[in-house]
Amino acid sequence: MGLEYALPAFASVVIVVLLETRWLRTGIFRSPSYWSTLAICLFFMVLVNGWLTKLSAPIVNYDPDQKTPWRFPWDIPIEDYFFGYTLITAVLLAWVRQDTADDPAPWARRSEPDSSLHDTAARDSAS
Predict the structure, then answer these.
(1) Which of 5, 97, 111, 119 is the most buried if burial means most Cβ atoms within 10 Å?
(2) Rounded-to-integer distance, Cα 76 and Cα 58, Å
């Protein structure tokens, strides 16, 4: 059994998680916004992918020798979830990585006010 579709799907998840936890370290996995985004994407993925891959009248066909036999729900190959997770997470990581100190990700912002900004505002109002 060749798993040319399944193995890259599983490996891609490991790679994107390692990318975040070992190199980028954006903190995205701690963000409720990230998990909400995944849930929203998963909802629409199930609707669309379920329709495209249903076994009763498939629009997209997969070579059964290239993937696992597991499908959930409505005949969606589980590999599609892994690829979807990887694509969504990789795009969000790239987006968050572009954040700057002036405009950080919401979960990366400090809860206390920046004292340098406060001092500048106080100095400007005094003059």
Answers:
(1) 5
(2) 10
Coil/strand/helix, residue 97 = helix
Residue 84, CA distances (Å) to 16, 17, 100, 101 in order: 12, 13, 27, 30
First to last CA, the chain: 77
Confirm if 92 and 34 have CB atoms less than 8 A apart: yes
Domain boundaries, the chain: 6-126
| Dihedral sign computed on CA atoms, order 11, 15, 16, 17 | positive
Residues 6+ apart with CB under 8 A from 106: 31, 33
d(CA 6, CA 14): 13
pLDDT at 98: 83
Instruction: Give phi and psi for 6, each to the nearest 5.
Output: -75, -45
The DSSP symbol for 19 reads I
